[in-house]
Every structure is written in C-alpha cells, then in structure tokens.
Design a protein that fits this description.
Length: 314
Amino acid sequence: MTPAIEATDLSRTYSGGYEAVAGISLTVPRGEVFALLGTNGAGKTSTVELLEGLAAPTRGTVRVLGHDPYRERAAVRPRIGVMLQEGGFPSDLTVAETVRMWAGCTSGARPAGEALDSVGLTGRERVRVKQLSGGERRRLDLALALLGRPEVLFLDEPTTGLDAEGRRDTWDLVRALRAGGTTVLLTTHYLEEAESLADRLAIMHQGRIVLSGTPAEVTAAQPARIRFTLPADVPAARLPLRLRAADDGGRVEIRTHALQDDLGELLDWARETGTRLGALDARSASLEEAFLDIASRAQETSTPRTPAQEAAVR
C-alpha cells in the first residue's frame, strides 16, 4: 500500500541561501501517528509546510497519499486536515459562524455540531472567537481541521494553551482517529505527548533528522537509572564494585544499560548486608532524557545560527 506520507532528500532553502531543511527522508505508513520533534529552530515547521503542500521543496520529493501536495494540490487538499500553530480566524465571528464559513470551503464537511462536540466546544457556538480562551481557540482550530474527515491530519503543536484535562481529551481524540484509520503527523514540544501518542518519531536538529524510531527504540539508547539514599553510616563506596554509583549529598544514582540485572544485584546486596535503601526509584530512560542528550550532543558539533536564521525556520 502507498504510504500516507513519503519524503525523500527533502530540502528547503530560504532567500539568502540558508538551508532550513537539509535533505531529510521519512516515511509514514497509513494509520500511524508520527511525531516530529526538535530543538527550537530545528526546521520542524518548515518541514511540515512542505509536507502540507504550502511550499515547494528546493530539492527532493514529497508524496502525500501518492500525490505531490504542492503541484497536485487539488488531489490532496480535500483528503487532508491541517491544524496550524495559529488559526488566524476573524475575531468577530462566532464559533458557529466560523465553522460554517470553513465548512463552505471543505469537501464533504461533517455537521458542525459533530465537529464541535468532538473537541468539547458544545454550547460555545454563539461565543465570538475573540471571547474564547487560548485553549478554546486551539480546540476550534482542531475542530476545523477535522471537518473534512481527513485521511491524513497534520497537527502543529496541537495542545499548546490547553489545560491538563484538555490535553488528555485531545490525546484521546487522536487515538480514536488513529483507530479509525486516520494518519496523524504532529509536532509538539510536550515530550510526554509524543511518548504517549506516537507509533514512531523523528528528532530534528538544524534541519536534519538525527534520530528516528519508535519511542522505545529512541529511549533504549539511553541508560536507565536507579536512585536511592543510604544510611548515614553506609558510604556509597561499600556498594558492589560493578555498580558504578554517583553520590550527591547522600542521594545515590546508578546509571545502567542492564536495569534488571543491576537492580537485582543491588537488592541482593542490601538484603545480605541489612542495608535499608531509602526512597528507592528505578526506571527506564524517558523520551525527555533521550531528547535532551541528543540536543546536547548535536549542539556541541553544530554551527550556531544567526537570530534571523532562527526566526526563518521556526
């Protein structure tokens, strides 16, 4: 089956010769949630605009549902939904008027009430856009992106401005869309969001993809950690030599790529010596830790951008 999204050697160069997207390739199968992550100015939005067909690539190819989204826009646009970082809707229109206006430009639009109900805006139809909270505006943006029952949905920072309940509701909606066969490509600064929703993800830095895979594959490259405290009369030096530990004011941390084995050895030692391990916490690496490590290593080897270049690619 043709992938929902396919990009090969994709590049985008702005006026002045700056390359914001520097030859990336990615494939998103149908029915998958794919998260595109990156440091500020990494080129995420520039990439998504190419995938949406809002701009032509300087080099490389893009296919969405088998078509070039820029040159074959008429074939692609009715089958996709786009939620931008800011909707920019007329502030004096009511929510209902905004939905009706958008539905008039959308092929096979679903009923307005259904779209608003899906994002929790039922009962807000008569409220003017300018009177909505920031979170409610993001809900409206999402409702309009869903009007055409899209096969592919692009979400650019979909939960910015939402409270915790609104964020969870949006996650549930994305999961329901995926279960119904919709392909979702999202960008987000909330790494917990990507870890919870994405089947696969890619991390960008300065226009390039530096790591990709499932969330589990990305985090597996990072060490797990075991944290605990020792009694005042038990120094960390007494721990088994194989457990290389760092002691920070009584708080001990062990980083390991063999969590089960090392945790077992630690617990055996504690049992044999009668040592109580206070505030014991053992966990695998999080996506946040993997992201920060990647960003740090990439920053050490990268060339700084000028402020103008940073603004161009956000």
